[in-house]
Specification:
The complex is a heterodimer of chains A (about 650) and B (about 70).
Chain A lengths: L1 H33 L12 H5 L8 E3 L6 E3 L22 H35 L3 H39 L1 H10 L1 H23 L7 H33 L14 H5 L4 H29 L4 H22 L2 H15 L1 H8 L4 H25 L7 H4 L2 H16 L8 H7 L13 H24 L2 E2 L5 H25 L5 H4 L3 H22 L4 E2 L10 H27 L4 E3 L3 E2 L10 H28 L24
Antiparallel strand pairs in A: 1-2, 3-4, 5-6
Helix pairs in contact in A: 1-6, 1-7, 3-4, 3-7, 3-9, 3-22, 4-5, 4-6, 4-22, 6-7, 7-9, 9-10, 9-11, 9-21, 11-12, 13-15, 13-17, 13-21, 15-17, 17-18, 17-20, 18-20, 21-22
Chain B lengths: L5 H20 L6 H25 L7 H4 L1
Helix pairs in contact in B: 1-2
Chain lengths: ~650, ~70
């Protein structure tokens, strides 16, 4: 007994030491960060400053965003020209090469940041689940998740290297400037990457050794460390794009003013962080769901099919859980963009890039329609869920109405004859829907309906048994009804009030949708305690179409990420760093929508071909799963979970 | 106008909750008419409060059209 305790203590000390060593470089680097980086940020100090060193004259300048005064600590942003010095090139558009490298790195980066979070959640569920068989199944699922991300992690690192080389080769002046501004945190980023790699490998390879008792908790806590590092890495990367869009911490010439926090904490940093966390999670869920769908479709027996059906469902549910708040985070980001530079917002949503937002709306609609379709198909694996089938056509009607309003453009490109035939730029009826007031109503109706689909799915094979179930059902129905009424009312009301008041209506609309999500889901969970089972969930007995819906979901996520990245990047127009460093390359123009769409599609195709390779690699190591014995589940064999 | 006063909607919400508690004691919870009535009062009052305060927090007047 004493020996076991001693072993555990030693293991804990060893693990703590290992994590401590991994994090040590970051801790060591913190004083440099706190002092604003120590060394001047942008290369050598300005010539003037060097000359006047003897007189110790300090030049001060005003921060372009914070409007505070700071000591000039760096060189101004380079004034580039269209030549080989600033823009060395191959016989190809450099921007397209960079776009490709950046997008692929981002896809894999998002994936490997999201999957460990899922892994942590599922492993935690496994640890706290009292049912031993289920606990092992959750553990196996978490292991399956991390196994996929491990190969992807190596690819992420390789793509990161390719991205840096692309920057250095094709945009040396810009990259030099950016890395000089972020110099105090550049090495922290690199060291955190090392820390994340180390933690990930220990986490993966120690899975078998740390599967019981206290060691399991330690293993789980390692996933927390892993995710904290991963999230911080992402925040740092976001600070670069935030700086490029809404620079801060520099003066009008782009000279660093000695406060690295100002450089990181730009106007758009926080909305970008929130949007990217949610987006990564939704994307990660989608990719894992697609992996499960692929394994389901290629499964050789019922047991495998049941496992991957369950895995697909869990991944989809996690992905959609983050997809639901995603439009709200996007809305916040857009509001902040408008608040930062109104012109930037207009370029995005009412000008040059507005049509890309119509495509985005279409993709969002596809995501929600696919999710709902999957849930309706999934009802088919539950006995007793037939009672919901007759309502699906009404759901389809509501979703399609919301979708059509959501994708209606404000104006469309027309020939003079078409313009004359329609009587103006806007259609006399449909033109009314091409405004934000209607679109906000449309998307909130779609999301509320998705919440309702989820609640019905949770009730699929169960009937509430609480004494107040009738009241609960009626209350839920009435609450949803008035939520729809409120959303539509606010959408209509927006047409009758001035724009400066109307813009605020989106907030109560969002709150209405979120009220349905949180309150009604909570009410449903309470009502479902001790619910009467109408029949088992027959995992694996789901239509093949549902699996294609999962693949569709994942592809739509990927495409939309590519699109939104392009929109976000394009809004800078001819600036490398907005209003600070001008892009004087021959490619400082906005591509046509068609070219952009083709490029995004190419990126999506490349990502999916490469991730298929990763999936295939995952199948090669399938026999090395940590659960030695097959765990019998009470009841039917192909039944990985008794609940949802 | 009383409808534009958030206290009215709070009072209505409070009334709905009180009636719900009383109804529960009287065993009326599973009475359809009672359940619909109470649910409507609570839901309508709740969404009005949400609309009012979330506009108010942004410095905007939810009742703009009604006041004009």
């Amino acid at each position: 007994m004493g020996s076991v305790t001693r072993k555990k203590t030693l293991s804990v000390i060893a693990l703590s030491a290992m994590i401590g060593l991994l994090l040590l470089p970051i801790v060591v680097a913190i004083p440099a960060l706190a002092s604003g980086g120590g060394e001047p940020a942008a290369g050598a100090p300005p010539a003037e400053a060097a000359q006047k060193e003897g007189t110790a004259k300090v030049e001060k300048a005003r921060d372009v965003y914070y409007k505070t005064e700071g000591i000039v600590s760096g060189a101004p942003a380079p004034k580039t020209a269209d030549n080989a010095q600033f823009y060395p090139r191959y016989n190809f558009e450099s921007r397209v090469l960079l776009w490709f490298a950046n997008q692929q790195h981002l896809y894999y980066g998002s994936f490997v940041l999201a999957v460990p979070i899922f892994c942590m959640v599922i492993e935690f569920i496994g640890v706290v689940t009292k049912d031993k068989a289920m606990a092992k199944k959750y553990d196996q699922l978490a292991y399956d998740f991390i196994k996929i991300s491990l190969t992807a992690y190596s690819l992420t690192a390789i793509l990161g290297g390719i991205l840096i080389f692309t920057f250095l080769t094709l945009y040396p002046a810009f990259f030099g400037y950016l890395s000089s501004i972020f110099r105090p945190v550049m090495h922290i980023y690199a060291l955190m990457f090392v820390a994340e790699s180390g933690t990930l490998y220990i986490y993966y390879y120690a899975w078998d050794k740390m599967k019981e008792g206290l060691m399991k908790w330690l293993h789980l806590s390692m996933s927390v460390v892993l995710n904290v590092i991963g999230t911080l890495l992402m925040f740092l990367a976001n600070s670069w794009i935030g700086f490029m869009m809404s620079p801060a911490g520099v003066d009008e010439q782009g000279r660093y003013l000695g406060n690295i926090w100002h450089v990181i904490h730009t106007a758009l940093w926080n909305p970008l962080n929130v949007h990217r966390i949610l987006g990564n999670m939704a994307f990660g869920g989608g990719v894992v769901a697609a992996y499960a769908a692929y394994r389901f479709l290629s499964a050789k027996n019922d047991e495998e099919r049941a496992h991957y059906d369950w895995m697909g469902y869990i991944a989809m549910a996690l992905g959609v859980a983050f997809l639901i708040p995603l439009p709200f985070a996007g809305y916040w980001l857009m509001r902040e963009v408008y608040a930062y530079r109104q012109q930037m917002g207009i370029t995005l949503m009412g000008g040059l890039l507005a049509w890309l937002f119509i495509i985005q709306a279409t993709m969002i609609g596809i995501l929600f329609l696919s999710s709902n379709y999957y849930l309706w198909q999934a009802l088919g694996r539950m006995r007793g869920a037939e009672r919901f089938q007759k309502w699906i056509k009404y759901f389809v009607f509501i979703l399609v109405c919301g979708f059509l309003i959501f994708i209606t453009p404000h104006t469309i490109v027309m020939t003079p004859a078409e313009l004359k035939a329609m009587g103006g730029q806007q259609h006399p009826v449909l033109g009314n829907y091409g405004v934000m007031s209607a679109k906000n109503g449309g998307i909130n109706v779609i999301i509320t309906t998705t919440v309702l689909s989820f609640i019905w799915y949770m009730r699929g094979n169960r009937v509430p048994a609480v004494s107040w179930s009738k009241f609960g059902n009626i209350f839920m129905g009435v609450f949803f009804f008035f939520a729809y009424v409120n959303i539509i009312w606010l959408a209509i009301y927006g047409y009758y009030i001035p724009a400066n008041v109307r813009v605020g209506l989106s907030v109560p609309q969002v709150a209405t949708t979120l009220s349905c999500l949180f309150f009604m889901t909570a009410l449903n969970v309470v009502m479902m305690k001790g619910a009467k089972q109408l029949g088992p969930i027959e995992w694996g007995k789901i239509s093949v179409r549902s699996q294609y819906a999962l693949i569709m979901l994942a592809t739509a996520f990927t495409w939309m990420m590519g699109l939104m990245g392009y929109i976000r990047s394009s809004v800078r127009l001819f600036w490398h760093v907005n209003e600070i460093m001008r892009d004087n390359s021959p490619w400082a123009y906005t591509h046509t929508v068609g070219f952009g769409a083709n490029m995004i599609s190419f990126n999506v195709l490349f990502f999916w071909i490469s991730i298929m390779f990763v999936f295939w690699l995952g199948t090669l190591g399938a026999k090395k799963a940590p659960v030695e014995a097959k765990v019998p589940v009470p009841g039917r064999a192909p039944e990985p979970a008794v609940g949802h | 106008m009383i409808l534009t006063n958030p206290l009215f909607w709070f009072a209505l919400l409070g009334l709905g909750v009180v009636v719900l508690v009383v109804g529960k004691k009287m065993g009326l919870l599973n009475n359809t008419m009672f359940a619909v009535g109470v649910s409507v009062v609570i839901a309508v009052a709740y969404f009005h409060i949400v609309d009012h305060y979330l506009m108010d927090m942004q410095g905007l007047d939810y009742w703009y059209l009604f006041r004009k």
